[in-house]
Amino acid sequence: MIRRPPRSTLSSSSAASDVYKRQFVCNPTDLIKIRMQVDGMKGGQGRYNSSLTGTLGSILKEDGVKGLWRGAGPTVGRATALAAVEMSSYDHIKNWLIRHELIVPSTPSGVFITAICSGFCCAVSTSPLDVVKSRVMGQPVGADGKGTLYKGMIDCFAKSVKNEGVLSLWKGFLPNWGRLGPRGVICFLVMETLNEHF
């Protein structure tokens, strides 16, 4: 008899595969967002803070079409890890909380507590990739179209840890969790409602 894998395993692997493809396609918009945010921190003195189309034009002029996928590695890695961790941790945490009678299944309060805990797991596991993604995408670019601070994802990891310590990979952890927790609450409330009625 063939044993079917647990639902969390199926959900996390299929979600990760789907997210991998979507995030790669959407990388240009993520790059534009990061460039505009980094320039915004310079008090309006940067090259990319005029508009969405202006930033797109600047990137194409400096880096070419290929430049729109700068930082695609960490972006895709982060999104894939997030999808896998979110689905599997939600199921495991929910089952543990139900088993210990800490939540009532399929109630808004139960989903809220479970999703916030799942968001914490996501923030812990994806913050390093988020930091690296932002640094690789937001770094200055030389005349040759290459980043002037980091050669790529691995180089950024190594330099960040060497220069700032390993905890630098979790900079912005609380805002990250503050984003992932509520997002998870909305997603899982919808998912649990659909599962219950269909």
Write the SSE topology.
Layout: H1 7-40, H2 52-63, H3 72-99, H4 108-138, H5 153-164, H6 173-197
Task: Describe the protein in words.
The chain is built from 6 helices and no strands. The chain is mainly alpha-helical. The protein starts with 6 loop residues before the first helix and ends with a helix. 28% of the residues are buried.
Q: Nutshell version of this structure?
A:
It contains six helices and no strands. By secondary structure, the protein is mainly alpha-helical.
- Unreliable stretches covering 5 or more consecutive residues: 1-5
Instruction: Please give the oligomerization state of what you see.
Output: single chain
Number of strands: 0
- Gyration radius (Cα, Å) is 19 Å
Q: What structural category arises from helix and sheet content?
A: mainly alpha
Main pleated-sheet profile: none
- Shape, please? elongated
Average per-residue pLDDT, rounded, comes to 84
Strand content: under 5%
Order of helices and strands: HHHHHH
> What is the end-to-end distance?
28 Å
Q: Quickly count the helices.
A: 6
Helix fraction, binned, reads over 70%
List keywords for this structure.
single chain, 198 residues, mainly alpha, 6 helices, elongated, disordered N terminus
